[in-house]
Hints:
Number of strands: 5
Number of helices: 8
Strand content: 5-15%
CATH architecture: 3-Layer(aba) Sandwich
CATH class: Alpha Beta
CATH superfamily: NADH Oxidase
Oligomer: single chain
Radius of gyration: 20 Å
Order of helices and strands: HEHEHHHEHEHEH
Largest sheet: 5 strands, antiparallel
Number of domains: 1
Distance between the termini: 39 Å
CATH topology: NADH Oxidase
Amino acid sequence: MTDDAPPTVPAPRGPALGDAERIARVRAFADELATRRTVRDFAPDPVPLDAVREAVRAAATAPSGANVQPWRFVVVTDPGARRRIREGAEAEEREFYERRAGEEWLDALAPLGTGADKPFLETAPVLVVVFEVHRGEGEPRPYYPKESVGIAVGLLLAALHRAGFATLTHTPSPMRFLGEILGRPRNERPFVVVPVGYPAPGARVPAITRKPLAEVLVEV
């Protein structure tokens, strides 16, 4: 520890806007995000990878504990790797649906039409596999890694939606097979798989509703 203050830069102030414009901007953003849905039926059509890279760049602006930035985004386009990821995920999912999941959990999933088969992991042209980076050789200790990576994934989903892509968040458990398939070091722990692409022709999603603002917002 020294008495020297760390270097600083001026805080960003953002554009000069009136209150009405600020409200309108946030409302438009919320309306856009309200159209985002989890899609499980993807077309195999390729997507522009530069758009995915820019979405990852947006995600990597997330705040993190002590600014350690404990995330790694692995963009997978190789068909063989996507096939192996699907096979590994389905093996874990069969174990989940047949043995580990309780009746209450299965009942909660039933309206969403999910099951052990995960074809989207192979048909989606891109998978973004997000890892938490823990202390390893050359890596600092992370602080609040799950919270930090969770915020980054939220920004990733918003950016991909802004680009017009369909996505979903897939979390097979356990996920160790992802690091093995993708050759990641042991200190990188899989967090989520995000398939990215376009909905298949005729794709449908469950008819669900969101909780109204009055039910999720508390003002004190």
